[in-house]
Amino acid sequence: QVQLVESGGGLVQAGGSLGLSCAASGRTFSISAMGWFRQAPGKEREFVAAVTRSGGNTYYADSVKGRFTISTDNAKNTVYLQMNSVKPEDTAVYSCAASIFDFSGNYYSSRYYDYWGQGTQVTVSS
Hints:
Elements: E1 2-7, E2 10-13, E3 18-26, E4 31-39, E5 46-52, E6 58-60, E7 68-73, E8 78-83, E9 92-100, E10 115-116, E11 120-125
Parallel strand pairs: 2-11
Antiparallel strand pairs: 1-3, 3-8, 4-5, 4-9, 5-6, 7-8, 9-10, 9-11
């Protein structure tokens, strides 16, 4: 079992910055990749970013590329999402997710992930 706890959400003005954290606990040695997803009201959950645990390779949705940065501190079992130049359309509940012993590379799909955090609200005001 892996437990994930997000923190850092809140209200930010358009053009501003906000950082999210996701701390993993439990059988963290089994994590192969971690990702961030978001879901806005009335919309489906969508991929935001992912990072592999071993090589630190990163992957981004086109909508956030160049504005968001995902990083990981394996020693702390924590993954971060730094959001810069945020837009009102970035408003959503952001959830982190962990994949266990899966090296298929399907980072963009929510089905790839085995564990999910409870989510944290990010609201961008215009």
